[in-house]
Amino acid sequence: MGFFANLKLKRAQKKAREQFELEQANWDADQALLEKMETVFTNASNGVDSVQNFVVNEKGEVVLFCAPAIFHETRRGPSQFVAGSTGVSIPIAAGIRFRVGAIRGTSLPGADSQADLDQGNVIVTTTRILFVGPMYTKEWEFSKLLGASALNDDSDYIFNVSNRQKSSGVRVEPHQGREFNRVLALAITAAESGVGVVMNELKNIRKQLTTSKPMLELPSAPTA
């Protein structure tokens, strides 16, 4: 094999190794998160909290997750005054005119947006999401949850519930966003269908993960 062909092969093998390392890192992260979810919901099936917390549990409720978070809620921004003027222009000297009139305008309401209001902890249980902070305490019951939206990194959430007009939500640290997302999704499933359904779902995920483990395949030199 010539020099340039050998150089091309080495570059291709390096690229393959880098791709494998990336896929392996993602697989390892999925594996670690799955193991944590299996532990959390095994505890839940036995009625055991998975994290230390300061929540007074309701009957049959189990705490699954707790992390620092920011609470935010829809707030209307300040109104804006759009001015205009009316009146007439009166000549007072050659080439000079004086405008007489009044300033009028319209007050436009401010736009709605999510405003950060408090810093505390978000807690996910088998029946609800809670935020507990020094100034605000909020609860989003799964039975009243109409919808939830999240940013791409899974760190910022807005919840809509049937008993509240204003949307509100929480923002967790980016490195905890993925875990929060998975716990929340599985907790809602547990609330709707039971913890047993979640455990079966985790078993299926375990099978899929096992069969999708990355393998390093290096390009080989072409045969003569």
Description of the structure:
The longest helix has 43 residues, at 3-45. Residues 98-110 have low confidence and may be disordered. The protein has helices at residues 3-45, 174-193, 195-211; strands at residues 63-76, 80-93, 96-108, 112-125, 128-132, 137-141, 145-150, 156-161, 168-172. With 224 residues, the chain is of the alpha+beta class. It has a seven-stranded antiparallel beta sheet. Strands 2-3 form a two-stranded antiparallel ribbon. The chain has a single domain (3-211), classed as Roll (PH-domain like), CATH 2.30.29. The termini are close together. Helix 1 (3-45) packs antiparallel against helix 3. It has three helices and nine strands; from the N terminus they run αβββββββββαα.
Summarize the structure.
With 224 residues, the chain is of the alpha+beta class.
Query: In order across it, which strands form the biggest sheet?
Result: 6-5-4-1-9-8-7
Overall, the morphology is elongated
The CATH architecture would be: Roll
CATH superfamily: Pleckstrin-homology domain (PH domain)/Phosphotyrosine-binding domain (PTB)
Tell me roughly what share of residues is in helical segments.
25-40%
Strand content: 35-45%
What's the number of helices? 3
CATH topology: PH-domain like
Mean pLDDT level: 83
Q: Span from first to last CA?
A: 9 Å
> Segments where pLDDT lies below 50 for 5+ residues?
98-110
| Alpha-beta content class | alpha+beta
